[in-house]
Amino acid sequence: MGTTVRAAVVVGVDESEAALAAVRWAAEEAVRRECVLRLFHAGLFDTADLRGGEPSREEPRLLERAHRWLRRAEQVAQEAAPDVRIEYAVRLGPAADLLVGLSDDAALIVLGSHGIGGLRGAAIGSVALRVAASARCPAVIVRGRAKAGGPVVAGVVGDGDDRTLRFAVGAARDRDVPLILVHAWHEGLLNDPELVEAAVEGEERALRRRVDDLVRAEPGVTILPRAIRERSAARALLRFEDAQLLVIGSRGRGAVAGGLFGSTGNRLLAHAMCPVAVVH
User: Fold this and answer.
1) Which pLDDT score is estimated for 260?
2) 124/178 Cα distance (integer angstroms)
3) Number of structural domains, the chain?
């Protein structure tokens, strides 16, 4: 009988506390998914050696340091999830580029909100931002705390976010918690009370249809619709302070869109009080 090979949960590792928080989250997620946790570290060549085409004189030291950090991360992962299966991966090169490359075959890429080398006081690290924007598998940026028992909260933008909803449903099912679907909308220039009331009913009716479709597909998951009158989708999602995971899509009207991220994605990754999953 053949065995099914499951893609790994890949987590970026360095010496930062944010990275170790990501390792804890990723270890628990790997156990839920019954797949391997791949602890990944990216080191940089000395640029002069790289230009000259010679092996870096710093390579042995970089590798020794990387394996020291990876051993520490392994201890943290095993403390968080004793049953987790772990493997190491070390490559030399720019971290963001390497992680985006790994996303082709990964089930999930997980990063802390900040790592070493980041700008002090920045809301989110540049590597985390780039990977969240460019990864070809779902990416989770671990920040704040995942509230044990809290719901999974997903932003609903339009009809093109089925992958986002499937990911959110799976996350809620695996954690045995409700899924809250949030659609933020605003009446814009409407000022006639009857037209505003009709707009409210229309938004709620459309959201209920999405929920009905999901319930039929996943009858074991409690799915709660929330149509919220709010100019900012980020503000609507940030209202759910008890969430253990926020899920957003990487494309959509006013959500995470554009060359990197729109205002919603940037604000959530900078200010959310729990991990944020970005689904492409």
Assistant:
1) 44
2) 28
3) 2
Range of the domain at 47: 9-142
239: pLDDT strictly greater than 70: yes
Q: In the Cβ-directed half-sphere of 2, how many Cα atoms lie within 13 Å?
A: 3
Mention every residue, 6+ apart, whose C-beta is less than 8 A from residue 84: 27, 28, 30, 31, 37, 77, 78
Q: Are residues 124 and 69 part of one domain?
A: yes
> Which residue from 92, 30, 104, 101 is spatially nearest to 61, judged by alpha carbons?
92
Per-residue pLDDT averaged across 63-70, rounded?
A: 86
CA 134 vs CA 97, 256, 277: distances in Å: 9, 12, 13
Tokens of 62: 């970089």
DSSP E strands in the chain: the ranges are 9-12, 37-43, 86-92, 108-112, 139-142, 152-155, 179-185, 223-229, 245-249, 276-279
For residue 249, pLDDT beyond 90: no
169-198 tens-digit pLDDT: 999 999 999 999 998 876 555 565 666 666
CA distance 81 to 129: 27
Q: How many residues appear in the chain?
A: 280
Whether residue 17 is found in the same domain as residue 101: yes
The strand order across the sheet containing 86-92 reads 86-92, 37-43, 9-12, 108-112, 139-142, 276-279, 245-249, 152-155, 179-185, 223-229
pLDDT in tens, 222-236: 988 888 878 788 888
Given 142, 160, 177, the domain boundary residue is: 142
Q: Which residues contact 43 (CB under 8 A, 6 or more apart)?
A: 59, 62, 63, 65, 66, 90, 91, 92, 93
Residues 119 and 242 in one domain: no
